[in-house]
Specification:
Layout lengths: L7 H10 L4 H6 L2 E3 L7 E3 L3 E2 L4 H7 L2 E2 L3 E6 L2 H17 L3 E6 L14 E5 L6 H15 L3 E5 L6 H4 L2 H17 L3 E7 L5
Parallel strand pairs: 5-9, 6-7, 6-8, 8-9
Antiparallel strand pairs: 1-2, 3-4
Helix pairs in contact: 5-7
């Protein structure tokens, strides 16, 4: 069954299911209208988190999902990311790691298996957001993304509002391109 209110997984379930009924997904693909006005059919096929028990609880992820993990520390995030990436690679998916934080890398360097993009957050919000948008455009559709912890942006941007703005301008574009993206926030670091 579904995790109850207050359970750590209830937040994940809410994020992955808030705006789309499961039956509607199974019945027909979603129609997405990208910025150029051309309708695209986005097939929200099932995607594994890499944790079979979690997949069963949330009925797996779907392409287009943007998953935000609220974790106590980076090690917690790294375990979730490793499972997700290993399953994606086993299924021959393309994985892109967006590296910008001061914390230890979430993904080991794997030469030709994972594309790593190192971005500079020091130039400010607009520059960083533009770098990310350009990168997503260049990589194209059907990519599995892992982003460093968004909490690390606080040391440069100093406000939760800017992190929220980054998230709200980036996630709809990731959805349009039929991607699955993993983000993390560190618990008790945000207002």
């Amino acid at each position: 069954g579904r995790p109850g209110r207050g359970h750590p997984l209830s937040r994940v379930h809410a994020l992955t299911r808030r705006h789309r009924p499961i039956q509607a997904l199974r019945a027909a693909p979603a129609i997405v209208h990208p910025s150029d006005g051309e309708p695209l059919v986005a097939f929200h096929s099932c995607v594994s988190t890499g944790w079979d028990s979690l997949d069963q609880i949330i009925d797996q992820l779907r392409r287009g999902d943007n998953v935000v993990w609220q974790v106590d520390n980076i090690d917690d995030c790294q375990r979730r990311v490793t499972a997700f990436v290993n399953r994606a690679l086993a299924n021959s998916e393309r994985v892109v790691y967006v590296r910008f934080a001061r914390h230890l890398p979430l993904i080991e360097e794997r030469s030709d298996l994972v594309t790593v993009h190192r971005l500079d957050v020091g130039q400010g919000f607009e520059s960083f957001s533009s770098q990310v948008h350009t990168l997503i455009t260049r990589e194209g559709r059907d990519i599995f993304y892992v982003f460093d912890s968004l909490s690390d942006l606080l040391h440069v941007w100093a406000t939760d509002l800017m992190i929220g703005d980054f998230f709200f301008i980036t996630c709809p574009y990731l959805f349009e391109l039929n991607t699955v993206a993993y983000f993390a926030l560190l618990r008790h670091r945000h207002s």
